[in-house]
């Protein structure tokens, strides 16, 4: 399956490569990647470990930089952005969902969800209100004052999703969001991502090993040895 | 403010660890403020009530060496000298050898004239002159021991036995005098002491010289020392405040000792707090990476880390400064009530120094974690 799709793209990667130098060895992680993701699309990346899925996700999210090629996200060329520009780009455009939730353990669920809003000019009351709205979207309003240690894995991942959507980014980037969950919780998280894609028109880009998770996506792209299969 | 709240919550993520660190820093800063104030007092010009126009002349090599009594007349004869008196170190204790008290044999007529800040009633003064083995005590001391006029007070001697070899002298309590806050000695008649002691007759401990022009204190001190430089009993003369500091420094270089103790304390604290901070930092490297992922800039994340380190040191310093002020009053009362006590008060400069050192300490322990946080790669930090 090709990564090509050109009309109304929100993510465009052209001939993107990524390589690491380890000692004298050059490790090519991605090579000649071309990808177009339409606004509002749900895309899944699959592939064996070490195929470059997460690296590709990191490049799209602006937390890693390519060795070559161009990356355009929401009409912004991000490959040449400075550190502060990339930080600003991420805060406005990207919501990130990690495999291991990565919530701050000393903050309550509401305070965790409020974190991205600290970068805005919203008042404390407005931040609280928005965080509560995001928590109610993931059906966790009654757990707002609980710390991560007091929540189940599935609940923690829902808090992480609330944190990802609280500042209303257009793109949700999910790195194995169900990788640490049992089948029941995984299914609930996928339902939630489905909801965000379907009802809130979010663009969802997800890395997964789970074929059941990938079934939720409109398009599944398989990476192998740093390239899309079939390219 | 919104960021400060976040940093604050981060600081107390492990309340026990933070509280213990706070407590150790709190103790260190209390020590710093108290000992630092002592150092400042010893290193500054001590203001002694009424002593601005007085010199103290003692033996050059040790304050416990005697001087010939003839020096009183010789120095009195100098121009610019208004009046000379003298005193001698008795080495006294009361009831228990550990209960040392200052006791000086003096000549009351010249002594009270020179030490004009001391006040005594005419009745007690006359009684002192008329009773050869009379003894005067500061009001506070007389009240503490319950001495009444006419009581015979046994005083143990560590230096001078009586003619018969007895080391316990008996003085008759003749009354009280009111002393300045930094003075609290028992006074006895020198004539009786000199006649009754087994050895050292005619010798005196030190002279107190009242000069006409206080601007010439140093010149006259130099002149006196030159007079005796080639004698068998050379002198060391100094304004009274300076002499007091030299007297206290006979216990050792107090400023140096204090500085040594405080340096050791703060070096240990630097290691301890630095270790706490770096341990705390290592634990949450992934969290810092998450903040960056959410859009916090490298600089902002590093500032969070630095502020947290500064708060870790500054909060206990501020608390200790707040507590040191009332605590200093208590310490001051204790020190001044001791036999060889000295006036003590918490010095404002020490309080400012404590806060400055806390901020500096915070910056030092936070610097490396802050730089590391700034350079932290999100991808590396989040790699499972």
Describe the structure.
The complex is a heterodimer of chains A (231) and B (384). With 231 residues, chain A is of the alpha/beta class. Chain A has a single domain, classed as P-loop containing nucleotide triphosphate hydrolases (Rossmann fold). Chain A has helices at residues 53-61, 83-93, 109-114, 124-137, 153-165, 183-199, 211-214; strands at residues 9-22, 25-38, 42-46, 68-73, 76-77, 94-97, 171-175, 203-207, 219-224, 227-228. In chain A, α5 packs parallel to α6 (183-199). Chain A is globular and about 50 Å long. Chain B has 384 residues and is an alpha+beta fold. Chain B folds into 2 domains: 2-45 and 253-379, no CATH class; 54-249, no CATH class. In chain B, strands 4, 5, 6, 7, 8, 9, 10 and 11 form an 8-stranded mixed sheet that branches. A 4-stranded antiparallel sheet of chain B has the order 3-13-1-14, with helices on both faces. A two-stranded antiparallel sheet of chain B has the order 2-12. In chain B, β4 and β5 form a beta hairpin. The longest helix of chain B is centred in the C-terminal third of the chain and has 40 residues, at 298-337. Chain B is elongated, with a radius of gyration of 30 Å. The model of chain B has no long low-confidence stretch (mean pLDDT 87). Chain A binds chain B through residues 58, 61, 63-64, 83-84, 87-88, 90-92, 96, 98-100, 102, 104-107, 111, 115-116, 118-119, 124, 127, 163, and chain B through 2-3, 6, 9-10, 12-13, 286-287, 290-299, 378-379, 382, 384.
Concise overview:
The complex is a heterodimer of chains A (231) and B (384). By secondary structure, chain A is an alpha/beta fold.
Please report the first level of CATH classification, the CATH class of chain A.
Alpha Beta
Assembly type of the chains comes to heterodimer
Average pLDDT confidence of chain B is 87
Helix % of chain A is 25-40%
């Amino acid at each position: 399956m090709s990564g090509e799709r050109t009309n109304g793209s929100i993510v465009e990667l052209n001939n993107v490569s990524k390589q690491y130098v380890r000692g004298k060895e050059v490790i090519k992680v991605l090579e000649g990647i071309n990808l177009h993701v339409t606004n509002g699309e749900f895309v899944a990346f699959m592939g064996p470990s070490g195929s470059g899925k997460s690296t590709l996700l990191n490049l799209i999210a602006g937390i890693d930089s390519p060795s070559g090629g161009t990356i355009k996200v929401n009409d912004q060329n991000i490959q040449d952005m400075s550190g502060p520009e990339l930080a600003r780009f991420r805060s406005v455009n990207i919501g990130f969902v990690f495999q291991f939730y990565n919530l701050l353990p000393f903050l309550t669920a509401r305070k965790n969800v409020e974190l991205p809003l600290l970068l805005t000019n919203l008042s404390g009351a407005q931040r609280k209100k928005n965080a509560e709205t995001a928590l109610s979207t993931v059906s966790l309003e009654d757990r707002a004052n609980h710390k991560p240690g007091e929540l189940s894995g599935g609940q923690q991942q829902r808090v992480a999703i609330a944190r990802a959507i609280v500042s209303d980014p257009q793109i949700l980037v999910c790195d194995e969001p169900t990788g640490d969950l049992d089948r029941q919780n995984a299914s609930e998280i996928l339902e939630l991502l489905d909801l965000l894609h379907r009802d809130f028109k979010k663009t969802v880009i997800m890395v997964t090993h789970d074929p059941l998770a990938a079934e939720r996506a409109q398009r599944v792209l398989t990476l192998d040895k740093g390239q899309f299969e079939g390219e | 403010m919104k960021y400060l709240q976040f940093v604050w919550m981060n600081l107390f993520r492990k309340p026990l660890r933070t509280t213990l660190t706070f407590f150790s820093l709190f103790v260190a800063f209390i020590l710093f403020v108290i000992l630092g104030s002592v150092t400042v007092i010893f290193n500054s010009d001590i203001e002694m009530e009424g002593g601005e126009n007085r010199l103290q002349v003692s033996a050059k090599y040790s304050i416990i060496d005697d001087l010939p009594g003839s020096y009183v007349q010789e120095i009195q004869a100098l121009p610019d000298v208004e009046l000379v008196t003298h005193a001698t170190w008795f080495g006294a204790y009361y009831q228990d050898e550990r209960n040392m008290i200052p006791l000086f044999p003096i000549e009351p007529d010249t002594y009270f004239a020179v030490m004009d800040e001391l006040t005594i009633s005419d009745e007690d003064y006359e009684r002192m002159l008329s009773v050869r083995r009379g003894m005067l005590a500061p009001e506070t001391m007389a009240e503490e021991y319950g001495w009444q006029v006419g009581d015979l007070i046994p005083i143990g001697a560590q230096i001078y036995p009586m003619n018969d070899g007895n080391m316990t002298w008996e003085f008759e309590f003749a009354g009280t005098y009111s002393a300045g806050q930094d003075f609290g000695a028992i006074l006895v008649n020198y004539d009786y002491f000199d006649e009754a002691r087994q050895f050292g007759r005619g010798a005196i401990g030190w002279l107190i010289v009242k000069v006409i022009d206080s601007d010439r204190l140093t010149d006259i001190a130099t002149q006196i020392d030159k007079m005796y430089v080639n004698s068998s009993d050379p002198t060391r003369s100094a304004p009274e405040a300076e002499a007091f500091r030299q007297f206290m420094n006979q216990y050792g270089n107090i400023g140096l000792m204090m500085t040594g103790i405080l340096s050791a304390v703060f070096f240990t604290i630097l290691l301890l707090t630095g270790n706490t901070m770096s341990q705390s930092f290592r634990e949450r490297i992934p969290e810092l990476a998450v903040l960056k992922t959410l859009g916090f800039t490298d600089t902002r994340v590093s500032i969070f880390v630095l502020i947290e380190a500064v708060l870790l040191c500054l909060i206990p310093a501020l608390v200790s400064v707040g507590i040191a002020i009332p605590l200093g009053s208590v310490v001051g009362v204790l020190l001044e009530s001791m036999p060889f006590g000295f006036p003590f008060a918490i010095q404002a400069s020490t309080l400012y120094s404590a806060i400055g050192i806390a901020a500096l300490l915070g910056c030092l322990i936070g610097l490396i974690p802050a730089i590391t946080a700034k350079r932290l790669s999100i991808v590396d930090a989040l790699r499972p």
